[in-house]
Every structure is written in C-alpha cells, then in structure tokens.
Write a structure and sequence with these properties.
The complex is a heterodimer.
Chain A (H helix, E strand, L loop, with lengths): L1 H9 L2 H30 L3 E2 L6 E2 L5 H6 L2 H35 L2 H12 L6 H12 L4 H8 L3 H8 L13 H25 L3 H9 L4 H30 L2 H6 L6 H11 L3 H24 L7
Antiparallel strand pairs in A: 1-2
Helix pairs in contact in A: 4-9, 4-11, 9-11, 10-11, 11-14, 13-14
Chain B lengths: L4 E12 L10 E12 L3 E5 L6 H9 L6 E6 L2 E2 L10 E4 L11 H11 L4 H14 L15 H13 L5 E5 L7 H18 L2 E6 L2 H7 L2 E6 L2 E6 L1 H6 L4 H6 L4 E3 L1 H8 L5 E3 L5 E3 L9 E13 L3 E8 L4 E7 L5 H5 L5 E7 L4 E2 L3
Parallel strand pairs in B: 3-8, 3-9, 6-7, 7-8
Antiparallel strand pairs in B: 1-2, 1-4, 4-5, 9-10, 11-12, 12-18, 13-17, 14-15, 14-17, 15-16
Helix pairs in contact in B: 2-3, 2-4, 3-4
The chains are: A mainly alpha, B alpha+beta.
Amino acid sequence: MLNRLSTYLYLRPRLTLALLLLPPLIWFVVVYIGSLASLLLNSFFYLNSFTGQVVHKFTLGTYAELLEPANLSIFWRTTIMAALVTFADAIIAFPLSYYIARFASKRMKTFLYLAVTLPLWSSYLIRVYSWNLILTKEGILSWFLQIIRLDGVLNWFLNLPVVGGPSLAVSATGIFIVFAYIWLPYMILPIETALERVPKSLVEASSDLGASPNQTFRNVILPLAFPGVVAGSIFTFSLTLGDFIVPTLFGNSSYFIGTAVLSYQGTSGDIPLAAAFTMGPIAIMIVYLLIARRLGAFDAL
Amino acid sequence: MNNEIAVLFQNVSRVFSVKQEDQTGGVKAVDNISLEIRNGEFFSLLGPSGSGKTTSLRMIAGFDRPTSGKIFLYGQDVSNLPPYERDVNTVFQDYALFPHMTVGENVAYGLMIKKVEKTERAKRVDEILDLVRLNGFAGRKPSQLSGGQRQRVALARALINHPRVLLLDEPLGALDLKLRQQMQIELKAIQQQVGITFIYVTHDQEEALTMSDRIAVFNLGKIEQVGTPAEVYEHPVTPFTAGFVGVSNLVSGDEAKRITGSLERFSIRPEKIHLAKPNEKFGQDMFAADGTVRDVIYLGLYTRYLVELDGGGDLVVVEQNLKTTSMDVMKVRGQSVRLLWKKEFVRYMGN
C-alpha cells in the first residue's frame, strides 16, 4: 500500500512538490502575508479621539501624523541606534569570526560555536535583565570602576548630553550596549559562514602573487566575506528596529519605534497609528535591502 | 646561464605531526630529498598521491616550510621566506581564481599588488591573454568560463609576473582527455616561448612523458629516479619506477631463474615482448618463455595479452594491431605460445 503510494508520487513530481509546499504556503500566505495586509489596511483607518473607536474609513491622516516632529524623531532615534548597533556588532564580530573560520583548531571551533550560540538557549528577558545588574547605579560595572578609581570617568560620561543619563542602565549608551550584546550572535554566524566559504587556495594564490597578508585581507578575504557582514547586518538592523523590551528597560522616557507601537496599540488603543508606525521599519528595511543588493550582498547566495 | 640551477633541494624533509603533543610521531611527507632543477627546464614531479610531490611543490612556493634541510632559488636560501617574497608563481589545481574579480582583474592582480601603472597593466594583460588565446575575455567573470578557459586564466595570471620559476600543481587534472592532451602540447609550447623554468606536479605518467625535459619519480616521500623521459621509461632503476612509469612485467625468484638463469629481479616492458609460435627458434641475444594465453584485451590501437607461463607466474604482452583485427586476436585465447624478447631490453634490479 505504502509502496504503491510512493510509486504514485514518484511518477508525479509536480504533485509531490505541491503536497510539500502546501503547508508552508498556507502558513506563509494566511498568517504572514495576511497579518501584514491587515496591518496595512488598519494603517489607513483612524481613531475617533472622542469615542476612542477605530473608524473604518480610508484616510491618509494617520500617515500624516507620523510626519509630526515628535514622531519623526522616534524614527531617527531608532534608525541611528540600529545603524550604530549594526556597525559595532560588525566590528566586534569580524575578528572573532575570522579566528573561528581560519585559525581555531577543531576543538576550539566547537567550543567557540557553542559559546556564541549558548546565550540564545536562555531566555531573552533573563539576559536583558542580567545586563541591568551590570549597568545599574549600584551594579557590577560601577563597583568595578570604583575599585580601579575610574568612577570619575563614568560620571563625566554620564553627564554628557544624549549618550548620558542618571546611570548606564538608564541611558542611550545602556540601550546601545545591551542591543550590541544581544544581537551579536546573529552577526558572528553569517560572517563566520562567509569566511569559511573562502577557499584556502584563494588566500594562497593571493600571497603567491605577491600580496602581503594585509593586502590579501583587503583584496580577497574582505570582499568575499562582505556578503556575510551584510547578511548579519540585516539581522542586527531589523531586530533593533523592532525591539521594545530593551528601550523600555534601559531607556529614559524617549520612545523608540517598538515602544511607541506598544504604547499606541496597548495603552491608547490607537491601532491605526500603531499600524502606521510598524510600516516605518518595514519601509526602512526595504530601502536597506535594496542598498544591500546594490552592494552585491546577495550575489554569493 | 643554461647550467644555472633554478631550484635546489638540500636534504629536505617535511614532517606533518599527527598530534601536536607527540613530537616523535608524524607523517614524513617528504623524506630527506636532494634535487637540482636547472634553469629553463620543464621539470615534472611524478608520483602517486601521497608520494610527497605536492608537498615539495608547496615548499618551493612557500606555502609549506621544510622541517629540516634547505631550499635554494637561484642560489638564495628561501627555506623561511613567505610566498609573497619569492619570485615564483603557482598555477593551482583548482585554479583558485578570485570569484569577485573579472578575468582581467584576476590576471592583473600581481601587477596591481606591485603597483604597476594602469596603462602598462592593461597592455600586459592584453599581451598575456593573447598568449593563452583568451583575448576578448577580460571582462568576464570566472564563473562564466569553461574549465579549460579557467585553466588558461590561471596560467596567464601566473605568467604575467614573469616569475623565474612557474609551479604547476596538476593543472590539467580536472579537464577531459581530449582537452588535456591539447593543453599538454600548448603548455609545452608556451614554456618554450617564455623560457621560464616550469615545475609540474602530476600523477599521470603519460603527461609527464609528453611534456618534460626531466622527470623526478616520487614514492613514499623519496625520489626513486631522476632522468629524461626516455631514461626513466627505458632504464628504470627501481621496481617502483618500472611499474609506475608505463606498464612493466616484474619478474623475480624462481620465475626469473628459469628465464635468465639468475635469481636477480628484472623488469621487461610488455611492448618489447614478441608473441611467437610454440617451439619457434631464437637467437643467443634473446630470452624466451613458454606459456598459454589466458586473456586477450582488444584496445583498438593495440591488444594486451595475459600469458600464463608454464613454470608459474604470468607476463603481460602488448602488440600493435598492425595487421590483425579484433576477430583474429580473440582466437589466440587458450593457445600455447612462446614469448621472445631481446636481452638488451631487460632491466636488472638486484634482489
């Protein structure tokens, strides 16, 4: 019976393909595209501020609201933060990935892989809160800085505008540090994979043709690993754009896109504005992906 | 100038440690090799995989360093120089073309590193692409080329730097037979045109015989024999060389004694043996052995016979199909024959 079924399917590759694709397609279309479409639809409605009810009539007014200075600054703040986090992660991840891909012994490689991915096994919230213990006013960091008598530097830094705050745990710097930490694995893994895929013979060929290790790195390794950096940056950038937990826990009262969406749809029940807000990061990501494609990030895929 | 020595190996060994803690245990990839390669030569390192030929080549290039011994390049001790400080270039087995660069950029890479001026660079790229018959391909990416074309790009990329020595690591291994034979002739022609010392690694004895001025036969990390193709083929000095370069019958012990009257080992090439009728008379300058044809393999150009000797053992005989057809040769199966060959073709190899 089972044999006949497999023979039947073997002779009909199109049917087999359809059967295999159907479940993920249903999921993709209904749940994923569907929710996005409903978001888009909602963003064209508006809230009756008197009754607090959503009015199901087409308007561009909600989007106009987005362009108000207060809301625009939310977009800028979030995008700049996402860009900084991405940049920092790329800088931190590259040397480590390079070491894992090119120099680490088999054992070391396994260990480092585990070390990089292990944090992902634990709860996101736990990890974020543990940073609170490190960065807070009575936390480990300030305690340590006091011991090595650098607490003056910390206080000076916290008095700076924009990056400073009452303590590292309540400042833009704190948000930046925690974001950079929490998305780091998503940067390391694609870069490591990209570096792993650069054949050793290319490196040898480059040095054979007279290139110093430095020149080989710039002319061969970096261009070939760059798609990995872009792939990683897509993760770090988009995850930072959408996150609301880290800004809530470490920020002062200034909104990020995620926290804004949360408060509009939760506290004030303004679903249309929240939906319009969500369209923001989607638009930013589309622009980002187009630039990434320009840079040739997907050529190697 | 012609007798100048391009590459000199002085008691070179390369040991790959299996475990880093265990210094004594290890694989001797290259075992105390001494070798001279002359200026302008087409020199082949021939041997089976794991014989140390590639490791030797990599040590000339600088990708690997000798565990002991010294390597000289035109009189300069390069044993501890990195690859980018040696005046040699390599054509890699997998070509190792940079996938993110065009053919032109690949070829110009060495000049770009040396900061050769742009117009000069472009001129030399054109010249060298002409030499390997790839003009007009400069704008393509390596992925848009066939295997044979990639091979030429790899060659051009190495040759454009006018290295004193060009190293080739089985560069034709991935090509099909026809293309390979064509490239063998082309490579040899290019080598004569540019006059650079070529050092060629291959496991294909026919390739080595076709192109080389001299051949070094490698086995188990040691050199068995160095000589011209004819010397290595006609006068193999070890059983390994006799068996690896071409096909040889290796006869020893009682079997040898019945034929030559001595226990000394000898080798005889299959094509030197003549297949004759039983009881055919033969002169003083010939050896003879009687036997029965066990197997006949018709190969078009020639036929290979496996003859079981009456006294034990067997010999392979090859005869060209000058007058015979496949129908004729098949009839020989099972028949008694006398094998005859000139004594001068026998190579003695001690006990």
